[in-house]
Each structure stands twice: as C-alpha cells, then as structure tokens.
Amino acid sequence: MYSRVGVETDVFSASPHRLVSMLFDGAFDAMAQARGAIQTGNTELKNRSLSRAVRILDEGLKAALNLEAGNLAIDLRDLYAYICMRLTHANLHGDMAAIEEAQNLLQPVREAWNAIGDKAAA
Predict the structure, then answer these.
(1) Which among 7, 59, 68, 103 has the fewest CB atoms less than 10 Å away?
(2) Closest by CA position to 99, among listed 90, 109, 111, 88
(3) What is the model's pTM?
(4) Which residue ranges does UniProt annotate as crossing the membrane (predicted)?
C-alpha cells in the first residue's frame, strides 16, 4: 500500500521526461519478473508480467510518440511494435531468449532517454 502511494505521488509530481523514464523502469521490471517466473514455472506471474510490459510499451511509450516529429518517432513506434510482438511470443512459448532480446533492444533507448534527462537537469 505504501509503495503504491509513493508511486502515485511520484507520478503526480513528475515531469513529462520523468514519466517516460518511469514507463521504461516499469517495462524492465515487468520483463525481469517474467524471466523469474519462467525460471520458477509460475505461469500466472509470467502472463501477468509480460502483459504488463506489452501494455506499457503499447499504451504508454508508443502512444506517447509524436509521429509528426519525424523519422525517429516512426522508428521508435516500429521498434516498440516489434518488442511487443517478441514479448507476446515469449508469453505464449515461455521463451526466455525473446525477453532477453526485448531487453537488449530497449536498453539503448532507455539509456539515451535518461542521458537526455541528465543533460537537461544540468
């Protein structure tokens, strides 16, 4: 309960940049939970975690893109769609390699986004 209140407080007071960072964090947390669930054979947690990661990517990160801003936004939309497809595959087949691929594809985007925030804050 206390952690939920903390997250809600963070969301309400966060800048738009921080909100996107939180989406990345949530997606990575969900993928890590799914990997652990696959290792322990917890199908329910795997399903819930991967569904959450897909929702974050699709309804959060992809939906927030301004596609009129240019090719980068379009490329990110396509990358997020591909990652969603791989995570759906991982959910259907318990494929740990597909989750690792998704993490490896998303990590540079996350790092670049955080670097932008670090420079803006300085």
Answers:
(1) 68
(2) 90
(3) 0.87
(4) none
- What does the pLDDT look like over 56-77, one tens digit per residue? 999 999 999 999 999 999 999 9
3-state helix, strand, coil in the chain (%, to 5): 90, 0, 10
Spatial CB neighbours of 22, under 8 Å, sequence gap ≥ 6: 10, 11, 14
Q: In the structure encoding, which two tokens stand for residue 70, read together?
A: 């240019």
Q: Where are the domains of the chain?
A: 16-121
Q: Specify the CATH number of the domain 16-121.
A: 1.20.120.340
Structure tokens at 113: 């986004």
